[in-house]
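Run: sequence + alpha-D-glucopyranose -> complex structure.
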Amino acid sequence: MMKIIRTIATVLLLGSFSLKAQVKTPVYLDDTKSIHERVDDALSRMTVEEKVRMIHAQSKFSSAGVPRLGIPELWTSDGPHGVRPELLWDEWSQAGWSNDSCFAFPALTCLSASWNKDMALLYGKSIGEEARYRNKNVLLGPGVNIYRTPLNGRNFEYMGEDPYLSSKMVVPYIRGVQSNGVATCVKHYALNNQEVDRDKVNVNVDDRALYEIYLPAFKAAVQEGGTLAIMGSYNLYKNEHCCTNQYLLNDILRKEWGFEGVVISDWGGAHNTREAIVKGLDLEFGTWTEGMTWGKTNSYDQYYLAKPYLDMIKSGEIGTTELDAKVRRILRLSFLTSMNKNKPYGSMASDEHIQAGRKIAEDGIVLLQNTNNVLPVDLGKAKRIAVIGENAVKMMTVGGGSSSLKAKYEVSPLDGLKKRAGAQTEIVYARGYVGDIGGSADGVSTGQDLKDTRSAEELIAEACTLAKNADYVIFFGGLNKSEHQDSEGSDRLGLGLPYNQDKLISELAKVNKNLVVVNISGNAVAMPWVNEVPAIVQGWYLGSEAGNALAAVLVGDVNPSGKLPFTFPVKLDDNGGIALGEYPGSNGQVTYKEGIFVGYRWAEKQKIKPLFSFGHGLSYTTFSYGEVSADKKEMTEADKITFSVSIKNTGTREGSEVVQLYVSDLKSTLPRPVKELKGFEKISLKAGEEKTVSITLDKAALSYFDPDKHAWVAEPGDFEALVGSSSSDIRGKAGFTLK
Ligand code: GLC
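>> structure
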């Protein structure tokens, strides 16, 4: 009997092989063929109904594949700092899974503040592994909108005020994510620089500012990062919604930059079928929602690129040329992600991700001020440390809009300090102020009960009593991703700290000279107490490892090396857009009258001294700069020019320095900023060690965008390369001439 069974099994097995040999693998499934051939073949097999189904959402975060052909659906997920927990098919609320808690990485302002391209690659690779493990095909991030004013609610999600820094930091992030077979969807393209009226404001901006300030990071994402997708923004430009915009999508993104990827709408960013067909949109999501809370139930067939489009085709009103072009781009993305058989398997909340998150956080924390070297805290001497402030305990991974997460864990600053100090130092805590006691977002709860009915006076009195009898006082305050405090959907209402924090800080400064203020925020804040407080640290939203990273820097295990990715103005009017009365605009219009003079470009043009400058950040050691030398005094457009400078660690401990190179065009036909960042290098030096840093520029670094020629122009004449430790701490320069 067994013999018979074995024979039958053998026959069946051989049969299946020979059957397979006869049935030829279709081209679109044959990964020995080029993506182009495979796309053509898949397209040729699809019906018009299947094509239309593929170009719009089928659920909150997925779009249809072609079940008949075995082409899988596409799954997208927020966000830039971690993979969002699962939602119900057609709801903003939680699906209630128990296996979708992620590792929460630091906000992108922190990554940008590291000025460390290696960290950007590590970040992208790590978050890409989390997205891959969760079977997401498109990660809805990173965001690279320029920091135009310190009031934009979503600045914490972006990479600061400078187009060069954002461009250099976004590229490795994209490559890291996409190495997992997961697409990035760089957002929000373009000019989404405020949350006020975000879905109806028309941005008026001159071409120089558009090309020199607001587009470079997106251009780098496309041409250097190779992002497979880009997200249109809610706002309008030239009176067209950016998700369906002839200029941004067809003329610039596709024709000028050669983008072959997929344009995905922001959730609710499409408003008209014909516009969506002909003005560059490929994949429509979130229509009839405002991207966060409300929406029309199961309206997917009513999407602009759904039945209304199919009806237009069936009636002969329009052909299928645009449809095929859209489907072709989506199929290409599918072949590189969902249908990519060689992609890795990813991982989630792994030790590697924990280490990566902590390293990025430690690398991005910025030491703003350290009078009398109060920092680092000497745990050997400190018998008692008073920790004050709601942000010492408040969870920050929940909230802020679509980047909100369900983190596996989050170490608070207080817990991080307690863990690091151990039994040798007593850590005592007082609330100090009451800010936002809400504890949930999208149905994810922090589990914290921050209710406190005491008066501000009582809270300050308690805090000062503790502070009086401590060796060190560490205040954790700032913003907290609640409404108007760094959040999607609402901008900040002013530059000052909320919740009476300024008064509290001043009172603490009176009772203890060893006061450290740690500002947790994604935006600049006013610091009227800056001369009363010896030590100030910019702490960012640091994710799951927040408390450990902050403790490591505060006690000196880690030497801080972050540099500000945006200017801290003394007051709101020191900001260009605001000073010119063009924020947030009116009657649906906002005009970027400050043009290219954004951030330090404005401050230096107006000779305004910031509170803390772009590129500023101190260290627990010191660095000296040698002479800046250039390998040539004259260059032609075809040349490159290399600047070198030796950097020495003149302090007593290892540290990293970000050497920044700015270019100044001494005489130009069109107005140009005093100087512009065109190179940087982060180097680590042991105490006493010296290294030479070289930065090479080509003509692109000398060019400005000429709106009349609609081209970049490097104008012959004299230039200067200025090298320094921040935009306002130039240590040397070298002149040269472009012939
Ligand atoms: C939101 C945001 C966008 C996010 C999308 C999906 O409204 O603007 O950044 O990726 O909708 O949540």
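>> summary
The first helix runs from residue 2 to 22. The mean pLDDT is 96.
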